Amino acid sequence: MDFVLDHPLVRSLTPFLVVTDANRPGVNTAPFGLQVQGANVIDPNRMQNEPFCALLQNLDARTFGPEGMPMDRWVFYDCCFMPGAIFGFGRPVADVPAATRAILGVPDDYTGVVPYSMYIAIPMAEPGSWMGHNLASIAPMLPHENLKGLGTLTKSIALRAFGMTHFYGATQWDSSALHVHVKFGPLELVTAYTPAHSESKTLTYAFDVTDDALRGAMGAPDVSFDRPQAEIWIHPEDTASMVGLQSRIESGERFVIPYAPREDGAVPVALRRLE
Ligand SMILES: CC(C)(COP(=O)(O)OP(=O)(O)OC[C@H]1O[C@@H](n2cnc3c(N)ncnc32)[C@H](O)[C@@H]1OP(=O)(O)O)[C@@H](O)C(=O)NCCC(=O)NCCS
């Protein structure tokens, strides 16, 4: 059995895609052979799909709300539904425990799939490149449902579904999501200090979307990454070091984040200068 199709979360959860009819030809509805059923390929522009879109917004609010960056519905529309696509996993509502329905704000009369995770990305003007917009997983709030690995799995399969060759993402230096992102291999640092973002202490990173990167992130036993030893460590509050690093990037130097931040939180983010 294929590694992806045999993944315990793939076997127990239901995949969904949110894409307009116009964008649908650009999206793979069977990434890694995982067929998304027709009823779960959702056109956000159809009125009947408003309850599902509302649940995506609830998922965003439960996960990004505490981070201070929940999306307004118009942001979903302008930045996700119309230009991009969303891939995620959920469960049919009949299989969702009452406690989970309460956390996700599922209406009593709802029928259909309840989204537990989503990955949103937007195609860029640079051909083949997409910008990751949002990764949300409710798994940490549902320990009783045993969903460890859901965030990483969702991002991996989404990147394949969207058919990109190069990926960009932005995250804050202190974000726990860095633990997910480095699972795709060393990350090239595109910006280290980002005043164009509403949170300047944001870093932008990139990597090539290869089969190995995606399967390796999901834990495929036949994939391993070459992760160079770090030589620089950046504390998430150390603005001066971020600005210094950004100046070096703007002067042409290149850096990667080779592996996950240290768990002790003392000097969390590792970097290595590329020759
Ligand atoms: C970040 C998020 C997507 C992780 O979802 P998840 O389903 O727990 O993801 P995974 O189970 O795949 O976890 C991947 C790794 O991250 C680690 N991780 C997750 N949360 C962590 C935390 N708070 N602190 C340290 N490590 C953490 C996990 O331990 C795991 O590493 P391991 O396999 O080496 O143990 C989820 O917590 C979330 O939605 N957070 C709020 C929104 C957000 O910050 N999104 C990302 C913005 S760029």
What is the secondary structure topology, with strand pairs?
Elements: H1 8-12, E1 14-18, E2 41-42, H2 50-64, H3 73-81, E3 85-92, H4 98-104, E4 113-115, E5 117-123, E6 129-137, H5 150-161, E7 166-172, H6 178-181, E8 187-191, E9 202-208, H7 211-217, E10 232-234, H8 239-250, E11 254-257, E12 269-274
Parallel strand pairs: 1-2, 6-7
Antiparallel strand pairs: 1-3, 3-4, 3-5, 5-6, 7-9, 8-9, 8-11, 10-12, 11-12
Helix pairs in contact: 5-7
Residues 63-64, 67, 135-137, 139-140, 148-152, 171, 175-177, 179-180 line the site of coenzyme A.
Task: Characterise this structure.
With 275 residues, this protein is an alpha+beta fold. 26% of the residues lie in helices and 24% in strands. Helix 5 (150-161) runs antiparallel to helix 7. The protein is globular, with a radius of gyration of 19 Å.
**Proportion of residues in extended strands:** 15-25%
Q: List the uncertain runs.
A: none
Q: How many DSSP H or I helices? A: 8
Q: Main β-sheet, in a few words?
A: 12 strands, mixed
Shape: globular
Query: Considering DSSP H and I runs of 4 or more, what fraction of the residues is helical?
Result: 25-40%
Number of strands: 12
Mean pLDDT: 94
N-to-C series of helices and strands: HEEHHEHEEEHEHEEHEHEE
Oligomer: single chain
The molecules bound to the chains, other than polymers, are:
coenzyme A
* Radius of gyration computed on alpha carbons: 19 Å
What is the end-to-end distance? 41 Å
- The helix/strand class is alpha+beta
